[in-house]
Amino acid sequence: MDWTLQKNLFLGFFRAGIFGYGGGPASIPLVHKEVVEGNDWMTDEEFYDILAIGNTLPGPIMTKMAGYIGYRVGGTTGLFSALTASVLPTVILMILLIGFLLTFRSSPIVEGMTNAIAPVVGVMMLTLTYNTLKSTKTRSTWPFVIILTLVSIVVLELLNIHPAFLIASLLIIGCMYWKKPAGAS
Fold this sequence. Notes:
Mean pLDDT: 84
Low-confidence stretches: none
Number of strands: 0
Order of helices and strands: HHHHHHH
Strand content: under 5%
Largest sheet: none
């Protein structure tokens, strides 16, 4: 067993979990930083494929990604290292901070902290969106991406249709138009 790899998996997902204020979606840019940029465990394209598949499955995105990436990079032990590291910060913070936050939730300091974090999470989500769109240019044409984005906005925001229906529709369309890679039998 490669203890250095296990340690790096644990630390990478622990950092993403501890600094991912706001839950799973806010943690994704941090996971990307650790997995793609920091440790070179996978490419941007592979990461966004995992993110897309993880978003179609039920449950928290952070644990799904940690489990898959941990297993892929470090086997069964890696799966447990990454999963433990992604869940542990939440458990620790809940135990330490929940009482404090409940006691002082109306405090101007706690409200200020929450208000100060919100724009940072927003910027992280915009960065993630930009990187996801950037990674699609190798697999799709920009007009297709723009049309799909606009249709998604109309379906989700203007028509107020549940995202599950959009995701299911896109999965069906993707399966209908899927082509085998060149050279595959």
